Automatic annotation (TrEMBL):
Gene: sasA_11
Phylogenetic lineage: Bacteria, Bacillati, Bacillota, Negativicutes, Selenomonadales
Protein name: histidine kinase
Source taxon at top rank: Bacteria
Cell membrane keyword on record: yes
Keywords for this protein: ATP-binding, Cell membrane, Kinase, Membrane, Nucleotide-binding, Phosphoprotein, Transferase, Transmembrane, Transmembrane helix, Two-component regulatory system
Domain Histidine kinase: residue ranges: 20-227
Primary location recorded for the protein, binned into one broad class: membrane
Location in the cell: Cell membrane
Keyword NAD: no
GO-annotated molecular function: transferase activity
Amino acid sequence: REREQLRLERMICVNQLAAGIAHEIRNPLTSIKGFIQLMARRGDRPVSLEHLEIIISEIGRIDNLISEFQMLSRPLKEPLVEKINVYKLVNDVLLLMEGQFRNKNIVFPPQLPLAGGCVLGDADQLKQVFINLVKNALEAVPIGGNVIIVASCQQDMIAVTIENDGDGIAPEIIEKLGTPFFTTKANGTGLGLSVCYSIVQNHGGKIMISSLPGRRTAFTVLLPSPADEGVSMNK
Ligand code: ADP
Ligand code: MG
């Protein structure tokens, strides 16, 4: 009976995903179609650059959606298992995103010390987790606010917290986070956190959210760190 229950839950999940993706792709497609029809009706008058730009940006939205959707299916594969220095990985992600901090005039957080602990896992997948979380923090932080990254190693766990000033998240919204396609943003896909949850879960870890409404939000990624660190593997 348990197996039947699981099968049913998966079906519902697939249904929701399919409905979500259909809806998300139809929106930009409708506007692309509308603008192309408009351009066709204008006959031999010059094509408006503005309309072309809208079309390009709507195609970009579909493109983004599909990339995130692909990411969501990727963690279903067995993650690679290699020894990863999480602090270094987070530093790499931050450097990758430096331009996005600068664009919003957000102080670039200091690099984490390189002494941090290691986890066994898939570097590309874990990078994606931190990219998504930092991206969300940058989208939520007001101009001139702070994004802070804190990491710590305790016993057999590594914790990395990404915290940002901002409006925080209302409790009734926190409950919905991680549901595919749940977004409060006009141009959001609502897939970023789903990808994060699924990857972190696959690594035996978890994500914790703490929010002070009106003040700040913090996402903490907890990952198990092998006890025999450095003994059996030396990569
Ligand atoms: P998207 O960013 O496309 O909306 P996500 O899955 O990444 O999708 O995030 C889902 C929702 O979670 C966001 O729309 C937002 O409401 C909320 N959220 C995520 N991160 C933060 C944050 N740092 N501060 C406030 N709200 C957040
Ligand atoms: Mg996001």
